[in-house]
Each structure stands twice: as C-alpha cells, then as structure tokens.
Amino acid sequence: MILDSEGHNEKYSLLDVKKVGSFARELTKENFQLIGRVVIHTQSNLIEYDYKELYDSFIRQWEKVKHPIYFVNLDINNLRKYQSFNNYISQESIQYSENEDEQSCEIDVQDTILNNLTNWIAFDINELISLPYNPSLRHLNLFIEQLFLLDPIEKLNRNVLRNMESLKALYLNLPKSTSVFTKTFLGKVKLNLRKLSLSSSHNFKADSLLTYREVSQLVNFQDLEELELKVNCTNHYCPNECMVQFFRDWFSSCRDPLALTKLVLINYKSNPHTDNLLQFNKLIENELFCSMISNLREIYLNINDLTKLTLENKSSLNYNKFFRNLSKLPNLAKIVIPDFFNDWVVNLPRLFNKRTNFFDLLVNQCDCKVCNDTRLTFNKLSTLDSKNHFQHDFDNFTNSSADSSNVKIDTTSEYNLKFLNYIVRKLKQQFIYLNQNLYSINSILNSDDRPLLINHDLDQFKNLFLHSCLLNLIKLFKIHVPTLKSINLGGIQYLVPN
To answer: Looking at the domain assignment, is residue 217 inside a domain?
Structure first.
C-alpha cells in the first residue's frame, strides 16, 4: 500500500510514496510474484505524484511472467491527468489483428499484459466497450465525470459482454456512471456479482431515478454479498419516496433470505434537504432491516455528516424504532456510524429520559477521577483556544496538575461548544482514508483495503464520552443485537465484550 501520510493496515506492507521509484527498481521476477494487491492511497494536490516508473517496472515483469494482480490507484488528480494503469498499459501493449471474415480489426489478447490486471478503471463507456477480453478481470470501476462521454458510440461486442459476465465486483461511484452503465447493458447481460456499489441522485431529470425493477434486470440481487448505495433524492415532488420504494420493491420480490452480509447506506454528498433526510430516517426506522437480510453481518450508515453541533440541533430519528429493527438481524456483528456526532447524538437525552442537553449528557455524567481530569483539560484547552481565536494551536499547551474533583463543563458556553465541534471533527478525520474521494473513485465496500488512522491524542475525550453515556448506549445496542462485536460511533471504535 502506497501512502503519502501516516496510516496503518495489518494486511499490507506500507510504502511511502517518496520511495516508489526505488521500490520499482528493486523488483525482480521472483519478488514480483509475491505481490497480490497494490493500493495507491495518495492525493496529488500541491505535490504531484508520478507512478510511471512503477507502471513501467510492472510491465517489464509481466513481459517475463504472467501474474494476476489487483492494482488500484485512488489518487484522483493523478487519474484525471494520466488515466488509469489499465489505460496506460493499453497504450503500450495491445496489438491489433485483421479479421478477414468479418472485415474488421480485432484486438489480439493472447499475450497481452493487460490480462494480468484483475481490476480495471474505465473513464467512459466507449473505453470500456473497446477494451479486450480479460479472463482475469473480476473488478470494474466505471468513473464517468465528463458529460460528453455519456453516450456509447461503440457497439457492444463479444469481448465486453464476456468481461461483464466474469465480474465479481462493480463500482458505479457517480450517478452518471450508474445511469450510463444501466442504459448500455440493460437487457444485454445479467451480472452475478458479489459486490455492487451504486450512486444515484434523483432530481427532475427522467433518467435520474434509480429503481429496483430496472437494476434487478441487470444484476442478480439474490446472491449479492455486499451492497453500497450512495443515494439522495432532491426531487421535491418525488411521489413514491424513491429510496424507500427501492427497498420495498427489493424485499417484496424475495422468497428466501438474501445472501447479503454487508450493507453501506450513504447520503450522496450529504444532501441536507429535509425531505431527503426524512426518507433516510424512514429507511432506518421502518424499511431497511427485515428478515430478508437476516444474514447481514455489517452495516455502515452515513446520513447527515455536515451538520455543526449546536444546542438547538434537532433530529427526528427514533432510537427505539431503530433498535427494534436491528433485533431482526440475528448475525449482525459490526455497526459503523460516522455521522453519529452530527445527527444521532442530539437524541440521546430523549432516549435516556434525561432532562438535560446532549452536550451535558456526553461529558458530565461520570464522576470518576479520570473523567474529572479530562474535564479539567477540556476546560483549559477550550479557554486557550478561545484566546487564540480558535486557531486550534495546542503545541505549547502543558497540563499542570490541579485539584480536579467535581469538575464540570459548562455546556451552555459558546466556547466550549466550539471546542466540542473541534474534537468531533478530529474524531471524524480518523475516517479520512475511507471518505477520501468517496464520491468519485472510492468505496466503503473496500474498507479492509484502506489504512487505519487512529488519533491517540483523542483517547482521553473518547473515554470521557464513553464513561458519561456512550457505554450505556452501547449496552442498549448489545441488548437488541446480542451478536454485536464491534461498533464505531463517529470515530470512537469500541470492541463489544461478550
């Protein structure tokens, strides 16, 4: 895994992007065959990264030995400028031969280097159609940004249909990608996928509506194991609550429980429109969890992550309805809610029947010495931050010892609320590798292939929130979901004991 900043992943060897050149030069036929997966997780912004030397080295090794590799580049600005690795290879290595019978020119792929890649990225539908048959292909990311690349000019051929039939994972991470792919292949092929990522933003355009009826003609949903939906509805006159209807139609079509084990539901670009958020709440409280997805082991919910915390924040989410629905999932082991502090936290006083605000419930309910010490630190840092005009510069802060018994945080203070928002932002930054380019090239379905970022400077505040009320919340989760092993609430990761 190639990184340009700190991170951790036990499944990968980590390589600083500055050392890519020396790594490429050290590759041999022998050590090259030890590589199974490559993930480039960098961001070319002020510094522009170049992977040509790495690409050329891989091509040289593939000229010596056939060796399938899963190779993903998530550096979006690099992709926009230089295209994908498979595009680079196709410019370098594809050979053409004349087909006299059909009077056409076909791609000779018997020894093409392109067949060593198990995943491809295509930037327009015509590029996808023109690529050769790849017996190793299992993963496809269709990334269509440009309006002029929407309509297919090329005719569908045997190669592209065979490629589609071999796919196990399809990522349509932009609404344009979803609509173009569906329009192109509907009625031409039925995909048997393990992973599917769909994006949709329903507006006033007729082709923007995502329906289960249409997509299910293209994909076999019964055997799908992992589904990611990045969706929203900005159509003020949507008559059928399209997102809710998608799940209703899906579940009503099922006779037996689905194979689905992982479900990711994301409000596309965190659209704040009230009707849009109400649809998501209806899904979470009523429609989403039922016996048809009883095999579900992991859920990821990110609905409203742009909201700034104020004491006036309101949310219509009903925890009790949510818990009742979760109890229908007998195999659920993992829950991730990145936007917990933006939306879910404000309803905790109602859940626990406390006549106080969510901030007070979050920080002032535990009287142990550690929590008193942390509240004292919170107050000092908040005061320092306000004096520095909220620059969040704490490099010179020293926490001198003092009596920390019976310390409270004034939760009506504007300064303290601003400091809480700062902590919440830092907690959410631990999701940076998951959320980076999420609405372009990235997918939560591949979270195991992303580096972890854990900010231990926040540990004292994580423990304060847990002691004060979140442990009680997690106990409620555990009561309704006895199989729960892991939960992440806005960046606070907690392993649930048996």
So the answer is: no
Distances (CA, A) of 161 to 89, 141, 164, 191, 429: 21, 16, 5, 10, 41
Q: Which helix (DSSP H) or strand (DSSP E) does residue 232 occupy?
A: strand 226-233
Cα–Cα distance between 103 and 46 in angstroms, integer? 49
Q: Report if residue 52 sits inside a domain.
A: yes
Q: pLDDT digit string (tens) for 267-320?
A: 999 999 999 999 999 999 988 999 999 999 999 999 998 778 999 888 888 999
Q: Note whether 296 and 288 are within 8 A (CB).
A: no
How many structural domains are present in the chain? 2
The rounded distance, in Å, linking the Cα atoms of 302 and 228 is 11
Q: What are the tens digits of pLDDT across the range 72-109?
A: 999 999 998 888 999 999 887 655 555 555 555 555 54
Q: Please name the residue that has the structure tokens 């590589």.
A: 35
Phi-psi region of 270 (alpha: psi -120 to 50; beta: other; left: phi over 0): left
Residue-number span of the structural domain to which 52 is assigned: 1-82
Outline where DSSP puts E strands in 234-343.
262-267, 298-302, 334-337
pLDDT of residue 402: 63
Q: What is the DSSP secondary-structure string of 316-369?
A: ---HHHHHHHHTT-TT--EEEETTIIIIIGGGHHHHTT-SS-HHHHHHSS--SH
pTM: 0.93
Enumerate the β-bridge partners of residue 300: 264, 336
Judge whether 41 lies within some domain.
yes
Rounded to the nearest 10 degrees, the angle between the axes of helix 242-252 and helix 274-282 is: 20
Query: CA angle 301-8-86, nearest 5°?
Result: 80
Gyration radius of the chain's alpha carbons = 25
